[in-house]
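[audit] Reproducing an earlier prediction to check determinism. Same input, same settings, fresh worker. If the tokens differ from the archived copy the diff job will pick it up downstream; this log only records the rerun itself.
[audit] input (238 residues):
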Amino acid sequence: MHEEPVLEPGDLGTFDDSGAMGTCVVRHAGREYLYYNGWNLGVTVPFATFIGCAARDDRGAGFERVSRAPVVGRSDHDPLLALSAWVLIEDSRWHMWYVSGVDWTPTETGPRHRYRIVYAESSDGLNWNPTGDVCIDFESEDEFAIARPCVIRDSDGYRMWFSTRGDAYRIGYAESDDGITWRRDDELGGLGPIGEGWESHSVEYACVFDHEGRRWMLYNGNGYGETGIGLAVLDDSR
């Protein structure tokens, strides 16, 4: 365990001077690449956040930024926000599913973000091409935050777990043949709040992984994980 953070916030005035939040680590050619949300506090809106990348030798100590600028920043496709990258490498192509801001909606308590999950690709993991392809879109007017994709490639296609928020977060699910066009079916693979305890109001920010022949999910409970982190296992009998 490291006693010090592996990545500190950036220099004053940079895109990540208010915080750096890791979302995905991938290994390639003896290097580890950490994709993270870089945060700025805002004035007209509460915050801005874009995707940074830091790297290190495989299982080294601290990460070093590949650039003081984001690897996915403002563009015509992402004029407001870009965050929560999940990256897979397949046949020398780097695939990224991430969250893109649609708008800020005025409310009685201040501006409220609206964002959904989109796609980008790269040949080296550093220079990214946002395609504008929308992977997971809003299903109703009640949804305003579709966040934190986690993608696994199985032999029969791609599977994604993500967070979706109306009154509170729950974990949604979708499948795809090509990683771009997705069929959403939250009832099939999602996870919702339960009981009266630590996960009674919301569950969110899933990380799904395979270990010893089983598929596992780590996830946060109420208050973005303030009440704790849960562990679920896939029921193969269903």
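[audit] rerun output stored. Observation attached for the diff report: The first strand starts at residue 19 and ends at 28.
[audit] end
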